Amino acid sequence: DTGVSQDPRHKITKRGQNVTFRCDPISEHNRLYWYRQTLGQGPEFLTYFQNEAQLEKSRLLSDRFSAERPKGSFSTLEIQRTEQGDSAMYLCASSSPGQGYGYTFGSGTRLTVV
Amino acid sequence: DQQVKQNSPSLSVQEGRISILNCDYTNSMFDYFLWYKKYPAEGPTFLISISSIKDKNEDGRFTVFLNKSAKHLSLHIVPSQPGDSAVYFCAHGAGSYQLTFGKGTKLSVIP
């Protein structure tokens, strides 16, 4: 198992464009999480999936953000009409029921909006 | 809302000595506290956790202490090694599987 994979590693986009990130969790993990980390801050929770169901969404997740996890495997996070304030590291994590809060994080996708 | 505060942005320690990383929290509930370690260009890695019903949890060189009366959490690393140099985040988890992270403390272990 190669762990949690995120693609792309880096994304530079112009303000107003749409971007989509992909996360492939560890295969046997049914829980998947998206977090966002900005410079000098800890990761902030965005959303949580159990299998294909999106069970929690942070109020940080504005209408421009949408996440999906079709078939309960990989997940995508889309940001529409990007703004400079969206520049951050987007982290995906996964876990199995027995792990509790000990998630396995991916290396993240760094988004820069210019 | 739960707040988790790491008031020291950085810490330098000599190799072989003890590293003590601190964290304060606001709300008291039946829940868990965790420490994650992060190297540059990598995602955070889970290190150790403690349930709020315990005072101490130990795993090799890493020990986490929970002082519920002071609402204070600390991570002790003994002995510190250069490979421990990283950013350490304390985090809180309760009920749902959402984690609340502190801002992190950058640990530098000097050979």
Q: Describe the sheet with the most strands of chain B.
A: 6 strands, mixed
Total of DSSP H or I helical runs spanning 4+ residues of chain B: 0
- Classification by helices and strands of chain A: mainly beta
> pLDDT under 50 segments of chain A (min length 5)?
none
How far apart lie the N and C ends of chain A?
Answer: 36 Å
Shape of chain A: globular
Rg of chain B computed from alpha carbons, rounded to a whole number of angstroms: 13 Å
DSSP strand count of chain A: 11
- Biggest sheet overview of chain A: 7 strands, mixed
Number of helices, counting only DSSP H or I runs of 4 residues or more of chain A: 0
Could you explain the architecture of this structure?
The complex is a heterodimer of chains A (114) and B (111). Chain A is an all-beta fold and 114 residues long. In chain A, 0% of the residues lie in helices and 49% in strands. Chain A has no helices and 11 strands. In chain A, the strands form 2 sheets. In chain A, strands 2, 4, 5, 6, 9, 10 and 11 form a 7-stranded mixed beta sheet that branches. In chain A, strands 1-3-8-7 form a 4-stranded antiparallel beta sheet, with no helix packed on it. The radius of gyration of chain A is 13 Å and the shape is globular. In chain A, 35% of the residues are buried. In chain B, the strands form 2 sheets. In chain B, strands 2, 4, 5, 9, 10 and 11 form a 6-stranded mixed beta sheet that branches. Chain B has a 5-stranded antiparallel beta sheet with strand order 1-3-8-7-6, with no helix packed on it. In chain B, a hairpin with a 4-residue loop joins strand 7 and strand 8 (72-77). The N and C termini of chain B lie far apart (40 Å). The mean pLDDT of chain B is 93. Classes of the chains: A mainly beta (114), B mainly beta (111). The interface between A and B is medium-sized, with 26 and 23 residues.
